[in-house]
Amino acid sequence: MNKIIDFISIKQRKQDEKLDRMFRKANSLQDVQEIDKLVEEKSLVVQDHKLFLAFLKYLELKELQPQAIFKEVLELPKFKFEERYQMNWQSVVQLCFTFLAILKENDPEQYLEFIVSN
Questions:
Q1: Alpha helices in 1-118, H assignment, sequence order
Q2: I want to staple 70 with a disulfide (CB 3.0 to 4.6 A). Which of 19, 46, 47, 96 is the partner?
């Protein structure tokens, strides 16, 4: 029984790989259905919320608008985003999906506006 498969880690890794493949190129918001599907699959845990709130506080201190950052992480190529904001692209993509999942749950109209407006 030494080799118990950690299904949660496997699922998270697959989801991370899917996000990474999808957002490697600029203007990723063009495939709205795929984004919505990924947001729907995103299972939020308490840690996601804590990390997300900490990131919002960081953006506030840097005087950056969260929605602008989340838009740019999906629109800009990875290297350009990291160069402009000095933030890890992969981490911000993950935080963006936390943002989208929270937005979809609390304000579906604003969520649709965010993913459709390009």
A1: 7-23, 32-41, 46-61, 66-75, 78-85, 89-106, 108-116
A2: 96
